[in-house]
Write a structure and sequence with these properties.
Blueprint (H helix, E strand, L loop, with lengths): L1 H5 L3 H4 L6 H25 L19 H32 L1 H16 L2 H15 L5 H12 L3 H13 L3 H9 L4 H12 L1 H17 L1 H5 E4 L2 E4 L3 H11 L2 H30 L16 H8 L2 H10 L2 H8 L13 H32 L4 H36 L2 H16 L6 H11 L3 H13 L1 H12 L3 H10 L3 H35 L1 E4 L2 E4 L3 H11 L2 H33 L3
Antiparallel strand pairs: 1-2, 3-4
Length: about 575
Amino acid sequence: MSLLRTFPSRGALVRPRRRTAADVVVFLGAAVLLWALIRLTHGAAVPWDQANAPSTVSTDPAELPYYAARSLLRMFLALAASTVFTFVYATAAARSRRAAKVLLPLLDILQSVPILGFLPVTITGFIALFPGSQLGLEGAAVFAIFTSQAWNMTFSFYHSLVTQPRELDEAARLLRLSRWQRFWRLDAPSGMIGLVWNGMMSFGGGWFFLVAAEALSVDNHTYALPGVGSYVKTASDAGELDHLLLAIVAMIVMVVGVNVLFWRPLTAWAERFRNEEAEAAEAPRSLALMLLRRSRIPAFLARFLGKLVFPLDRAMAVFGLGERPLRTSAMRRRIGDIVFAVVVTAAIACGLYFMIGFIDRTAGFGEVGNALLLGLVTFGRVVLLVLVATVIWVPAGVWIGMNPKVSRLAQPVVQILASFPANFLFPLVTAVLVATGISLNWGGILLMALGAQWYILFNVIAGASAIPHDLREASANLRLPRRLWWRRLVLPAIFPSYVTGGITAAGGAWNASIVSEIVSYNGTTLHATGLGAYIKDATESGDYGRLLIGVVVMSVFVVGLNRLFWRRLSTLAEQRYSL
């Protein structure tokens, strides 16, 4: 008895907590969320006729809460689809040498294709998939948002897979983990921090293209879905400045709410996957996450779902072990490479044949030279944007990422700035440009930057916050001079993250040119010279020949820049600067 009094059990040391209030709040929150999902999905499945489809929405302020909820549902559906795509696509590219030769260039091309390049095909396909129902148009809108989110997340997760420490790979081999076990116990946790940060950035990119996704303009037809994006489009075309300002306020409320209730808890939860010996001096905190941890409901669900882990592991063992052979036959590898190259070359040749024939029958090859010249103009804007964003946001990102107190205060502000769709402000910017006489050829660079520069900032913050604390403490103990500290610790540590951010920022700038080189407000439209304006004009007029030429030229610029510049930096990051 004396021993028990001297050394009490672990449970005796735990301070009793009042969990009833937390249980009630979590239960009510889940019930409200479930009710909202049922109501919103019912509104998305209403009958719909393509011939009589509305091209505008009501600008009654009373409709804004419902529109905001519909927009949020589309955003989270696209985020879920982007996460699944990221896991499958990035894993296939990282684990297969041959697949990487096709999937990585294809990812470059997909990232370079603007959102308007997907719309003509996807709208027709989804409407045919759900005839007579608005679900078809909803699917096209969600897919459009998906195309603005998925690529950045995929690049981030692929980078985390190819830069895994060799010791973890050897441990997975020794433990004989299956592919399923390796993914959920090693691959997903090792890339979770970068994936969460890039998920936040991708979510912000989705907000940026919300207007284009909800007010779909294709082939001289406009289809409007209930949402904040279409509300802004309608108010802007009508010159209703007061309603436009109300939409901006609603967007700020949504961004702050999503940050507090979703991204902030997710960021704090992801800290459990940080792989280092020294603990952070001050870990990120979240009131919502603390409430969930205090409640008994998540623990009850975890105990119930935990019983499914072992059966799933056994069922998924049929896919084999999560390892690649360390040595293969040179002859077998060469034959496989030849067959793979022949199949890929045949597929590319077939696609080029049909594409060339379509261009020849529609716009003609004379348009190619014009599109190339316009592409050079937009290319100059993209290069200037990336350079300026690098100079400004790399030091700022390092300062935020390496200071937990600053990160806790700055993250909500950065999240609001990055997530707020800058094109909501484009009508106001248009009025300023018209009043001052400034050309959109220069003002368009600022508009593009508002949608693309945040990729660099978020990736640098993620890279700086992931620097192991034992390295930080070692540099502090050695009293490294500031210049040496930057050159030997900070820049090498954040270099892989910066490359990922640079790739996606450049691709995002090309995409942003679509909505930045043509802006309008209350009947006044400004045009800038560039490839983005060329593609937008072709999309709205239904000129699919010019649209294909514009998309192909933009893809050539983006892929060429990635192959000649960014991929070399990415290889350097993998070989020399992976922690």
